[in-house]
Sequence to fold (381 residues):
Amino acid sequence: MSAKEFMITWSIDSIYVVLLLRTLIPYTCLFLSSLIPPHIPVYDKRMGVIRVFLSWDVEWFLRIAGGGYSTEARLAFFPALPFLLREIGIKGVLALNGVLRIINAVLQIKLCRHLNRLAGEAFTPQTIRKLHFLLIFSPIAVFETVPYTETLFGCLSVMFLLVYSSMTLYNKKVQVLGYVALVLIGMLMGLVRNTAVFHAGYFMFGVIFLSRPIGELILSGYYFLSVLLPLKRRLEQYYEMCIPLKNVSKIYSNIQNKYWGVGLFNYWKITNLPRFLLVLPSTFLCLSYMFTESKKWIHSVCRERNVFPRPTSFKFAVATHAFVLTSIVVFLANVEILPRILLSSCPSILTHVPFNRSTIYMVILISTLGAGLFGAFLPWT
Fold:
């Protein structure tokens, strides 16, 4: 069956069925992965299937939830998820992730439709079916299911993009409410993950192209501070000393480098080649998306003889955000985290996935195989 025939015969148009399958498939894959012997023997001591939900960074979040930031390595992780684990437990977080994945899917559909409308592009039935398929077999489904930050951060990212991209469509009173919402979203983002700082780049888009320099500059600085100020407090509590704000990012980078080898080209070793191969699809997707949106921007410049993109070119800002994240992860960080970082920060990039027979099989394979690798404590983090 060709991809075109598949999309024609793909009959799951009901959003309720999509949401049900989106919830059930990752749990099924994780439960099946419990049959695989764990890569690290200590995990044999865990009873039942619960161990498949506790691989990789989940251990760190649980330790912080139970003992706080008592070691230097724990300072690399942000406090929102440990707080939830401490207050509602691991079962509560799993249930919360299930609810947030449903909300996230509904908002992603709304966001993709909205961005297409802003760009003057049709949101065709084929695009809807493709998006439904990708929401069911999400490449990062396992990270949105287990106690990771992806579900919470993904929801906040979608809300951010929806609110910010809609502000030009309403009057000033509604825009004020939009700014208030962005402040609240930024505060929460700063407690979830350090990549919240990159959302500040969208406000630079507003400064240059939307004639809202004052409000955008304030929000841009706020999103940086939403990450740096809580981080500064955690560092000061651990080191028991006053730390200037300008030194916070340097100290945090040193911690990342010391315990995870994060640094320029530090991960570029022949032994890590399989991990680079794992993220090739995400890398190519980002580069293709950036190329496509840049070409549209250049075409707009040539047609309108205006070097500034129109306010409707918001997809260009999303593509730039995705490109910056991809570049930083590939050159500086543990490269295997790219899919979850990229798709939770820039969820609308899913609509750019080329749909042919190869990608259909690849998406299903990545979604299901990823759960198995994660559950067996193999490199899928």
User: Anything to note?
Assistant: Residues 147 and 343 are 17 Å apart (CA to CA). The chain has one domain: 15-34+46-243+265-375.
